[in-house]
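Protein record

Derive tokens from sequence
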Amino acid sequence: MSDHAPTSTTPTASTLAERADEPTIGQLVADASRDVSALIQNEIALAKSEIRVSAKAGGMGVALFAAAGFLLLLAVIMISVAFAYFISMTGLDLAWSFLIVFFLYTLIAGLLGFIGYKKVTKVRPPERAIHQAQETKNALMQRG
């Protein structure tokens, strides 16, 4: 006979109580899923809040740029009138002075338009990128 006490494989009341306190795998998965869902929702709420603040600041910046552009346009008009009156002080009729200012602006606009046209004609398509995309397309078509 053996001197060892027989080990019982049946659970006792204390081990059953301990197991009842431990969550099951299903409960753990459900808890993890709920926590991940809450985390994602909180991250989305944070991103929305940050975007809202950023969009407000961006909108205010655009409005201020628009106001600055409008005031600059008014300033150009005022300096044009002043320039025409300055020319008329030389003894030239006021109508001719305004006509000179008009032709000066027309000349500047024509010059800027010509320079812009020359710059635009130098624009070329991205030939290397197009070639690479075509090679990628051909390689994928050969595989399929």
